[in-house]
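Hey, sorry to bother you again with one of my protein questions. I've been puzzling over a protein and I'd love to understand its fold better. Take your time with it, there's no hurry, and the full record follows here:
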Amino acid sequence: MKINNPASRWALSIRPKDRVLDVGGGNHPHPRANVIVDKYEDDDTHRNGNLKVYRHQEFINADGESLPFEDNAFDYVICCHVMEHVPHPDQLLHELSRVSKRGYIEVPSLLGEFLAPKDSHEWVSLEIDNKIVCVRKNDIGMNQVRFDFGELFLYQLQKQSLAYKLLLRTEPNLMTVRYEWQDEIEVIVDPQDERLRRYFTTPWGQQQIMEQFPKRQLPKEMLDTCKAFFNLCKTYVGGFRA
């Protein structure tokens, strides 16, 4: 079940003695991970740079949909920007929850994929009713890219705009779905429920907007902004990319 929408991948509930697995760490593995799994050692098609593994980490070449570990081999599992690439997201998530009872998933949201589309992404996701719902991009016409603002939203604003970084931390499901879970991952792949599909196929009305981004009172807004700023400062002090 879902337990949190973390402000970023640097704000996870990992305990000091947890044994941590990062599935698909690619060129930006989480430094807290003890073991890194990646399917592609020499092929950078699905990532933005060469495979990277820190000195304290063990690397294992494996497919996330068939992990070579015993049940509950880890205390926490991280999987960032992998699910949108795989043929069977439900199988990937089954494997994550098999090898660990706690973890974090991050994938592009519908808005994030619309503004910064990637040809290598097969799926697009939203969090609806505390579940991850994902549909094939081809099924909703997102394979027909007209504009690509990825250079602006993924790189330029990330480099120069503090306000943008704070926005992403106060609205964690804006450009991505950031989903911390425990015991099981609730996911719906290729939903047939028309109510769910409308989130992906029709303009959002006020009800859908409020469901995705509930209104916050001013005191909570101020508190969330302060927490986001503190998280951002910790990220920089730790020497990690924000």
In short: Helices lie at 89-99, 110-115, 150-160, 162-170, 194-201, 206-212, 218-237. The first strand starts at residue 2 and ends at 4.
